[in-house]
Amino acid sequence: MWLGLDLHTLFLGILVFSSRIVDVSLGTMRTICIVQGRSKAAFLLGSVEVTLWLLVLSSIMNEIVAKPVLMLFYALGFSTGNVVGINLERKIGFGHLGLRIITCKNGEKIAAAVRKAGYAVTSFLGEGRDGPITELYIVCRRKDLERVLVVAKEIEANTFYITEQTGTVSKLYRPIMQPASGWRAIMKKK
Fold first, then answer.
1. What is the pLDDT of residues 29-49, one digit of tens each?
2. Residue-wise pLDDT tens digits, 68-79
3. Which residue, 96, 77, 102, 67, is CA-closest to 20?
């Protein structure tokens, strides 16, 4: 017995905790997909999430009355699942974002370097607190954000930037790493 738990209760608690992490992570990602308008992904994630949730809940419902410590495992799994889901979605990087880079002196250099890296850049001249500025606007996939920022920060180490969530993007320019080959080349010809 560990902390007053028998081996069966501890095993069941760990199983509940782990299952809740998975189903709540899926739920968090599903919610983000809904916000971004990704209905197919939200449908799939929701189906798996609810199925898993029902399996976990039905397996411990009778046990909770006899072993209330399982509620703690359930609650901790839920809380941990939220954090895991957010971090997992950040890694996957669904969707697009608008990136605004504001600079006083290196606008043209940063724009040229970002374009050379394969991204479209729109530049605007403006007036800032200390005089003229250049604002660069770039739409990219969320997963490409760090790559674009590395290019900008090579020119201006403490680049000031702002990101914004975007909805639908009509056309997106992004670097092509290699030409399509194999079945992708065949599918592209159609």
1. 899 888 878 899 999 999 999
2. 888 899 899 999
3. 77
Task: Give the dihedral of Cα atoms 145, 150, 151, 154; nearest 10 deg.
Answer: 160
Name the amino acid, one letter, at 162.
Answer: I
The candidate with the shortest Cα–Cα distance to 92, out of 23, 162, 145, 16, is: 145
Return the amino acid letter for 95: G
Chunked mean pLDDT (size 10), the chain, 190 residues: 71 90 92 85 93 84 83 92 90 86 94 94 93 94 91 94 84 60 54
Q: How many C-beta atoms surround the C-beta of residue 99 within 10 A? A: 24
Please state, as a whole number, how many other Cβ atoms lie within 10 Å of the Cβ of residue 27: 21
Q: What contacts 73, CB < 8 A, 6 or more positions away?
A: 12, 13, 14, 16, 17, 20
Q: How far is CA 136 from CA 113, 154, 161, in A?
A: 12, 16, 9
3-state secondary structure of 37: coil
